[in-house]
Backbone:
């Protein structure tokens, strides 16, 4: 006896909804309901802030002062690795060094052979850093507050070796800005929630801290030096575990970047980031792929089930997922200071279907040997 198509479609839609609910309730709820523990007394570690830059004079002129004027009384340095810049970066840094003595500059004048991307200059910066706790950000990022260093170094006790921060984008007018910021939020909701759940799989170089000893213990980036990207996510994927990794969700510890001005440049940025995902650990790839697949097929199955099955049952299942999603998105967006995106989240959630169609080919391409 043939199984009715309406039963197959309804069962498939129900199963995919259960998969979605698992991710929202088991993983994403951890970010939504995460409680920041405010400490009356905190230890202040010596910190080396490491920034790599290539032809970033305009960004450094705007953002670097925000790093240099941090309200951090303990010992710290800001180490800027100038990687073969051809613009005015050198002269800008010379002028800033006269005003801010904590700024130290490394001038790289030769390209590293067989090590494409940002990993060689970053390795030089990490090895030159004076202090055990290193805090990483990019030239196009500015701390959200003068307490960024203070907040990001606080977790380094009781075996913690990695602190994952949130690298947000400036709020600007226009739909592209909202799309970029929602994509950034959606990615952060995943990697921060996974880390809280004890399954850390990545971090972002715009706001990331770890110990030098961890870097040396894993022999730096040697296992993936041949890959242009991954100085942040692949290293964390390799080195992080449930015991040595934590998240920093205080909004004063966020960083802010200027989003790409047009879709073409954002597409290139995203494809560069996605090209490293294939090198994650197998378990992480499975969890991420299952979530992405469930996102991709959810709305097509929803439409098919509405047409072929009992619409009352279908809407009931959809409503359960929508209520769960609404609560978790609202609380998570408030936590990451992206609450202005909340009224748009249903449209963006539907748009994820088209997002995967556009960007899926990037996961199959060989990474290009550039880092900016």
Residues:
């Amino acid at each position: 006896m043939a199984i009715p198509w309406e039963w197959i479609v309804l069962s498939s839609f129900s199963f995919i909804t259960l998969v979605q609910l698992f991710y929202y309730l088991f993983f994403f709820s951890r970010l939504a309901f995460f409680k920041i523990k405010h400490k009356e007394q905190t230890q202040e570690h010596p910190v080396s802030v490491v920034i790599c830059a290539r032809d970033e004079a305009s960004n450094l002129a705007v953002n670097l002062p925000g790093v240099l004027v941090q309200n951090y009384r303990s010992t710290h340095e800001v180490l800027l690795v100038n990687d073969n810049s051809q613009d005015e970066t050198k002269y800008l840094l010379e002028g800033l060094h006269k005003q801010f003595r904590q700024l130290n500059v490394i001038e790289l004048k030769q390209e590293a052979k067989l090590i494409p991307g940002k990993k060689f200059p970053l390795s030089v910066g990490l090895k030159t850093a004076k202090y055990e706790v290193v805090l990483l950000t990019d030239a196009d990022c500015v701390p959200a507050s003068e307490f960024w260093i203070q907040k990001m170094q606080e977790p380094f006790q009781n075996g913690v070796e990695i602190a994952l921060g949130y690298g947000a984008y400036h709020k600007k007018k226009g739909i592209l800005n909202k799309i970029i910021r929602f994509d950034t939020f959606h990615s952060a909701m995943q990697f921060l929630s996974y880390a809280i759940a004890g399954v850390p799989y990545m971090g972002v170089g715009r706001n990331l801290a770890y110990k030098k000893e961890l870097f040396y213990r894993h022999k730096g980036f040697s296992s993936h030096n041949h890959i242009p990207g991954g100085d942040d996510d692949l290293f964390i994927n390799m080195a992080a575990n449930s015991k040595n990794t934590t998240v920093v969700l205080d909004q004063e510890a966020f960083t802010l970047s200027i989003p790409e001005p047009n879709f073409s440049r954002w597409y290139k940025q995203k494809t560069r980031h996605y090209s490293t995902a294939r090198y994650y650990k197998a378990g992480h790839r499975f969890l991420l792929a299952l979530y992405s697949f469930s996102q991709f097929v959810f709305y097509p199955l929803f439409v098919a089930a509405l047409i072929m099955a009992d619409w009352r049952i279908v809407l009931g299942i959809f409503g359960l997922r929508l209520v769960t999603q609404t609560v978790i998105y609202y609380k998570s967006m408030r936590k990451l200071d992206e609450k202005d995106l909340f009224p748009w989240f249903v449209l963006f959630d539907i748009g994820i279907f088209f997002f995967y169609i556009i960007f899926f080919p990037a996961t199959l391409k060989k990474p290009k040997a550039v880092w900016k």
Observations:
- The first helix runs from residue 5 to 32.
- The radius of gyration is 22 Å.
- The beta strands are 47-53, 76-83, 103-108, 133-138, 141-143, 162-164, 167-169, 208-211, 245-247, 255-257.
